[in-house]
Every structure is written in C-alpha cells, then in structure tokens.
Amino acid sequence: MPLASPTLPPQMSINPNGKQPRIDGPVKVTGSAMYASDHNLPGMLYAVPVCATIANGKITALDLTSAKAMPGVKAIYHHGNIGSLFRSGPPQGFSGVIDEKRPPFEDEVVRYYGQYVAAVVALTYEQAIAAANAVKVTYSSSAPDVSTYLTSTEAPKVDSHRGDPDAAFASAPVKVDQTYVTPTETHNPIELHASVADWDGQAFTLYETSQAVVNHQNVMAQMLGVPQENVRVISRFLGSGFGGKLWPWPHALIAASASRDLKRPVKLVVTRDMMFQNVGHRPQTQQRVRLAATPQGKLLAVMHDSLNHTSILDDYSEGCSEATAYSYSVPNLRATSALARRHVGTPTSMRGPGAVPGLFALESAVDELAVALKMDPIALRLLNEPEKDEGLNMPFSSRHFIECLKTGADKFGWANRTPGVGSMKKDGLTLGWGVAGCSWIAERMGASASFELRNDGTARIATATQDIGTGTYTVLANIVRENTGIPHDRTEVVLGDTNLPAGAISGGSWATASCIPAVVDAIQKAQQTLFGIATAEPNASFPGKKAADLAFTDGKVHLKDQPAASGIPFGDILTKANIRAAAGDGKSEGTFGDPKRKFSTHSFGAQFAEVTWQPEIARLRVSRVVTVIDAGHILNPKPARNQIEGAVVMGIGMALFEETNYDPRFGAPINNNLADYIMATNADVPSIDVTFLDYPDLVLNSLGARGVGEIGLAGIAAAITSAVYHATGVRVRELPVRIEDLL
Ligand code: MOS
C-alpha cells in the first residue's frame, strides 16, 4: 500500500485561511516592477536581428551597403564580424544548460526559418528595424523538411522495460493499439524575450527574462569567453515563461556581444513572430500506445513508443514516457523514445514537458480500454493502482491518486454518468463527461539562501531564484513566516540576481520545494547568530546566559524554560548591541538524479471535464472542470490555485486550439502571432473547481511541499477528448480537436 503520509508538526500548519495575497502585487499593478525590456540605460542602443527567409541552405552573399548608410546605424553583425563566441561545454547538473547549442552567426548554414543571420544596432529601435529590413541576404537553398508525419532513422531509446510486453500483448484477450499526435505548441508568455546588455569594459550586467539566472550567467560566461564572476544576470520580474525562458537563446549573446564591441548598453527585444521561431517550442509528438488487459480489466501489458521532432542541429527529447512506468500496476511494460529531425528551431521544455503530451496519449488509451472493456474508466484505474513505483521498484513518498479520483468523482457527480455515447442531455445540449489521471515529478535541486534578522525588526531573505509570475516572492515570505512568525509586511524578499546566493531554477515545479530547506537552514543559522549576540557582553539582552538557553518564537527571543510572551523582540536585542543584522547562510542538497534515493517522489491528480455538444450548429464547449491535486502541503492556497487554474486554461487550449503550423514550402511558422495562434480566452473557460488534498510529503522537505506549476496541465486534454468521445462517439487522437473531426 502507499505509505501513510506523516503529519506536520502543529506549529507549521499555519496559514489556515488561504487568502494571503501576493506580496509583489502592488509593484506589479502600479507599474513599478521592472521587467527586462523596461531597463533603459544612458547611451543605450537598439539591436534588431535579421531573420533567414529560408529553412535549409546557406548564406551566399550579404549586401550591407544600403543598410549601413541608413540613419543611426552603428554596426551590423554577422558571421564575418561577430568575433569570438564559444559553445558552452557539457552541462554540470543544472549549470551550463542550453538547448540551441550553436552560437549566433557561427557559420553560414541555415537550418530553420527565421534563424538569425545578421543583427543591426542603431541609435533608435525604429532606425534598427528600418536598416534590418534593408539588409540584403542571398541564399542557396534546398527544400526544408517540416512534415508532420514523424519517422525516425535512429534506433529508439528504451526508457523503461519490465517483463515481456510483446508476448503478453500478443496473447491478451482485450487490447488497444492506437497512435496519438500532439502538435508543435509555442510558448506565448505575455512578456517577450528580451535582453539589455551592459559591458563596462570588464564585466557584463545582463537584464534578462530568465527562469534560471545562475545557469544563464554560467552559459553566457562560457559562450562570451569571460570568467563567470564577470557576468551578472538580473531578472527581478517575469511576465511568465512556461519553460521557454529556462535556458538562454541566441538573442542574449547578440546583445552582449554588441555591447562589448560598441562599449554601450544594447537592448534587443524578440518580437512576437520571432517567438515562434527563435526561442523554442514544444515539439510535435507521435505516440503509439498499446494496452492489453484481462476481460476483468487487469492490465497485462503497456507499450508506449514515442517520437518527437527535434531540430537538425540539436537533440531535444520530449520524454513522453515520463509518467508511463509508474502510473499503473502492470507486469509487462516497455517505453521507448526516438527523434525525428525537422528544419525547425530547437525545441525546449514547455510546461510539463514529456508528461503533458505523454499523459494525453496514455490516459486516452486507458479511456479507450475502458470503452473496449465496457467498464467505468475510474473503476479501471482503481483496479490497476500500483502499490509502489514499479518502474523504479521503490515506494512512493506520498501517493493519493485513488483519493484524487474518488474526491473528484464526488465533486463532479460522476455517479450520475450514463456511459452510452450521446446518452446524457441537459437543456437541449448533449453532454460528455471525461476523466484522466495526471502526475508530475516532485524533486528539489540544491540551493543556497541568506537570511537576516535586522535591528529595525524586519527580516530579509535572499536567493538567486526567480518569480516567474507563480508567486515565489510570496511563498518565500511564507516560509519565513512559518519558521519565525515574522509577518509578510516585515519581510523583504530579494530574488532574481546572480549576486545573491545561488538558488534553484524556476522549472520542474520545484522552485518552492528547493528553496525550503536552504531557507530553513539560513533562518536557523541566523537565529544562532542572534542568540550569540543576545548573550555577548557588554550589551547582552540575556546577560550571563548561554546561546543554548535561548529559543526564538514569533519574532522574540526568550529563555527556553520561559513562555514566548516573556521574550525580547529580536530588533531590540540587535539595537542594544548596536548590530545591524544577525545573518545566516543556508544551503541544501538536491534530490534530482540522486543515486541514493529511496522513494519515488511525484505529485498526482485527477482531471474531470464536461463538454457540451450541439450537433445542429457544430458547437463544442468545455462547460465544467473539476480537478483534484495531490501536491504535498500547499504553502499558500491562493497562488497555488491560480497555478492549477492557469494550467487548466492552457489544457483547454491544448485540447481545442493550440497548434503551430509550418508552411511546407518554406518552413515558416505561419500562425506566428496572437491572432492566428489560437489560445483559450476567458470566453472559453468554464468554472474550474480546484481541490488540494494537502498531504505533506516530508521526504521532500520539512514543510512537505512539492510543486504546483505544471501538474494542472497534465491530463486535461485526455479528459476533454474522452468527454468529446462520450458526447459524440468520435475519438480524437490528433490534437487539437477540430470541429470538422466531429462532423
Ligand atoms: Mo517548466 S517547462 O520546467 O518551466
């Protein structure tokens, strides 16, 4: 059986009302939060890239004559004059990671439409755009391959294997064998990618929009060929990222190189159309799933063979079978993955990489198996609940998938479902009800943090992680409050700057889980520093006592054997000693890839969707979503709920709208703007009921928190397409669902 979850010590179970607003809210809504491209420095120049208009070939000539003569132009960079840019070496953990490995302008070869082939730097943005348009590029080109039927010439990689799935499948009485396709999807954070680079003759200051400032610093230092301490990366606020801002992209190097060469600050803003070609995307996936079961529904075999497209020059594996090996109990299983090369920009992580397209395929197949078995899809899942992670052969740290399904079924009213296609009606509409499971990795990475208790009664917590819009500022203040009793309005949180102690990436949904142990360690060390100050003559607040006699409760220091109310506020102790701050440096190790791990750590959930279908006018709507999430202890329910709701909205987009289309003749992404790349809007979004089970996972950290950034997107598309099947009888296996599929 899954391990029973331990319970939190009572003093940590604060935050009962869940109404804590974001501490960064006021600076955001008043417009004083500085995003990367808001930085305007004295003497700043503007860089505008020139993008290739072919997807496969070579530059044969670059005519800069008229561009150079245009007003305000300071320089035009290209392969011939960009100077030294290096490739970064193999990554070490989460340091040195970059998906598009070739530095800009490294050669004259073009491998995707829109690849930067030159960049103009001018006094104004308008002058730079005009001159970039005047650069004449001649190419020799061949037909690009952007075809959407994927085949691979490379041997597939076996991601997980147990038993004899081929034999078990061949002899099984009930089978599903289907192929599921998810399209290329493009990250569309509202804040565009942007870099403002400032070279002072020795060191760079880079204002970036980055989900990982420390990695960005490391990669930029390597590629620019300067020591790491000569690069400072600042990213205080982000208008989201969805994974597209995890790792650096070529524009950041163009801005930095130009600043170094021209000895002036340079701003480069990636435009919305470039966002579709130069800064990654979720690759197209094509996944064959084979399931076999007994007539009673016991799984006998699972095979999940996935392909995803990657670019010509880089290997990006989506990892679609991430969740396959541990989702269900099955004796025979094989999951493989392979790449298909296309003339597209290099793909990258997009919210829930791997698990999101992977669970669309797996959970759709489970629903198809339930139909084949004439079995309720929840009952089928309950029957195949594993007692441990059968892929890793380890216990789960905390898995409550069954409770997610049952709680969701109650909230949704699943007991009223009639299984027949089109059998449910309401107000003249046909209803479809679908369900899917979801899961996501729960890890933490090594982090460090510094904490100060200050003489004015305030606290300061600093770490080089980022708040990408998810609420990290607030959650760090929560960690401080839960461990010291110091309220939000007396806590300063400082993030997004490589001058701070190295912190976690804002990715993998593990920023919070990673910060907790480092912050708690820093707090405890600062308290020890304070106890030393409180007992040190001549200005001791506790003369004649030892540090070991003292305790810290609700912002006060008191004798361990005395009540907390008798204590002295920490600010008074510092003031008496004439010391500005008692500091502590905290550090923690990561769990990711830890060979000594004893538990499989994941979050789980159940997604329920209702669609309404009006065949007379071919109108399909998602009318209701219920989601139940088991993501450990929820530190702050309000932003956590925001995360799940936002992910569900994205899931509706994934199911019904999102798809990047490439022109087969030129390899250009053609719906490269917010009008033609269709996303879910408010009008597409029904009421979303989010429930957190809130079982702390103390294997991961002392507050039992996992993460909520990505799991809410997993499973939604399968729940919706299963609901569409229930309403219409049409099983859509290639996203997004199109109305013409249903006619
Ligand atoms: Mo997430 S795709 O790890 O930003």
From TrEMBL:
GO terms for molecular function: iron ion binding; oxidoreductase activity. It comes from the Bacteria. The keyword Oxidoreductase applies. Residues 30-143 form the Aldehyde oxidase/xanthine dehydrogenase a/b hammerhead domain. Keywords: Molybdenum, Oxidoreductase, Plasmid. Residues 1-25 are annotated as: Disordered. Gene3D superfamilies: Aldehyde oxidase/xanthine dehydrogenase, a/b hammerhead, Aldehyde oxidase/xanthine dehydrogenase, molybdopterin binding domain. The keyword Oxidoreductase applies. This is Aldehyde oxidase and xanthine dehydrogenase molybdopterin binding protein. The lineage of its organism: Bacteria, Pseudomonadati, Acidobacteriota, Terriglobia, Terriglobales.
